Amino acid sequence: NKPYYFTSFQEDLEVDGVIYKAIPISRKEMTMEVKKGNFTVTAPLKVEPFTSMSSSNSAFPIVFTVISYPEMVTLFEGVAKKLKHNYSKGTVDIELISKLSNLSGKVPKRTYSISCPYQLGSKECGVNMDNYKTILGPGDFSIDGLKVTADIFRTGNSPTDEYYTGGYLKASTGEYQYILKQNASDGSATLLFQLSHVDEIDSLEVYPGCDKKLDTCENLFDNKCNFGGFPYIPNNNPVSQGF
């Protein structure tokens, strides 16, 4: 729940004791239709929290509020819906959906699929992530760019060889980072982005991921009662392909 304050001005801006950091962030022109629908912001990848954001992971949902200066009037408020990373430019396009758009829906939307739509640890999922975190202290891990090495990632030291894939870690500096892949063969994990201030990190909290399958929900997290997928939907179309 940590707030971040940014401005598109050339220099930092202070308003009522709050410092808005100047970064190369941009947005399109605001209209009444935009305020009620979708809206895109382009931000630098190397600046937190954009560094930790991933389209495949919403463990840390982010709410965006766009405010005009000097009026300090809220122009837009919404949540991240879709991300598009441009690694060559070092930017990320963040598609936001307005909170007002929820008013246009007549019925709740629900996607029926074999896999579970919930994020591990979300309110709908119900898993308490604190029960599954592993704390690594000094000497328990090493960091080399995108690679974090620790015994917990090695085959035999985690419930499965993919247990931490799709999970995340929290550094003692307060930074979060998404785990792209657990490499059980050499006891390492590949991160989506590099951690900052590595020399200041003396501990890590590591959290597992979830492949959204019923077996994983039941056997690893004892959470079958909250599984949100429909695992018995036929893989084949019974009309055109038969049972």
Word description of this protein:
The chain has helices at 32-36, 214-219; strands spanning 6-7, 13-15, 18-22, 26-27, 38-44, 63-67, 74-86, 91-98, 134-136, 141-144, 147-150, 168-171, 176-183, 188-191, 204-207. The relative contact order is 0.13. The model has no long low-confidence stretch (mean pLDDT 85). By secondary structure, it is mostly beta strands. The strands form 3 sheets. The protein has a 7-stranded antiparallel beta sheet with strand order 9-15-12-13-14-11-10, with no helix packed on it. Strands 4-5-8-7-6 form a 5-stranded antiparallel beta sheet. It is globular and about 60 Å long. It starts with 5 loop residues before the first strand and ends in a 24-residue tail after the last helix. The longest helix has 6 residues, at 214-219. It contains 2 helices and 15 strands.
Could you give the topology of this structure?
Blueprint lengths: L5 E2 L5 E3 L2 E5 L3 E2 L4 H5 L1 E7 L18 E5 L6 E13 L4 E8 L35 E3 L4 E4 L2 E4 L17 E4 L4 E8 L4 E4 L12 E4 L6 H6 L24
The level of helicity is under 10%
How many distinct beta strands? 15
Distance between the termini: 48 Å
Oligomer: single chain
Instruction: Profile the largest sheet.
Output: 7 strands, antiparallel
Condensed summary:
This protein is mostly beta strands and 243 residues long. It contains 2 helices and 15 strands.
